[in-house]
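Dear Dr. H.,

I hope your travels went smoothly. While you were away I took the liberty of generating a structure for the chain from your last submission, since the lab meeting agenda had it listed for discussion. I wanted you to have the full record in hand beforehand rather than looking at slides cold. The sequence, exactly as received, is reproduced here:
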Amino acid sequence: MFNLIVGNSSGDRVELVMDRNSTPRMALEEAQQAITGGTLHLDGCALRPQDLDTPFSELGVGARASLIAVVKGDGACA
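The corresponding predicted structure, in token form, is as follows:
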């Protein structure tokens, strides 16, 4: 088990206690966070689409981690 902060670039945050065999997709669903049109970061590192279904144990999380969805708005500069 570990503590996971799930949030987005708007500042919404939820803290969950997750099993290390759970996946980022499961955490996002539990926290009711949408990631459409955004980039997902685990402890500051961008995740690839296939990482959504990879257990946290294989992604190398410690006792605490953060999973943040960063959505680029239409008016944002590249």
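Two observations you may find useful: Residues 2-71 form a domain with the Ubiquitin-like (UB roll) fold (CATH 3.10.20.90). The beta strands are 2-8, 13-18, 38-42, 45-46, 64-71.

With kind regards,
E. W.
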